[in-house]
Design a protein that fits this description.
Elements (H helix, E strand, L loop, with lengths): L1 H25 L5 E6 L8 H10 L3 E5 L4 E7 L3 H4 L1
Antiparallel strand pairs: 1-3, 2-3
């Protein structure tokens, strides 16, 4: 019983720290934010090109298994992409 009383708060604290540091890790040191983009229009469409233009200078990595893309977007352009 005593072990459960000690482990439960430690587990909760560990989960809390893990969740709160996730946002800080997602924002890299160079002012870029990693975004997973899904349900995008085809890459050849004008809509896709318009989204990419709004995002500014982005690096794109295609994630083939999930049919999504990971974009590295400048921090000041994140609101324009959302």
């Amino acid at each position: 019983m005593r072990c459960n009383r000690v482990m439960h708060p430690a587990l909760v604290l560990g989960c809390f720290l893990w969740l709160t540091t996730g946002a800080a890790v997602a924002q890299s040191q160079d002012g870029r934010v990693q975004m997973i983009m899904s349900n995008l229009p085809p890459q050849t469409s004008t809509t896709y090109r318009a989204i990419r233009k709004r995002a500014g200078n982005t690096a794109v990595q295609v994630l083939t298994l999930t049919k999504t893309e990971m974009w590295s977007v400048p921090q000041d352009k994140v609101a324009a992409v959302n």
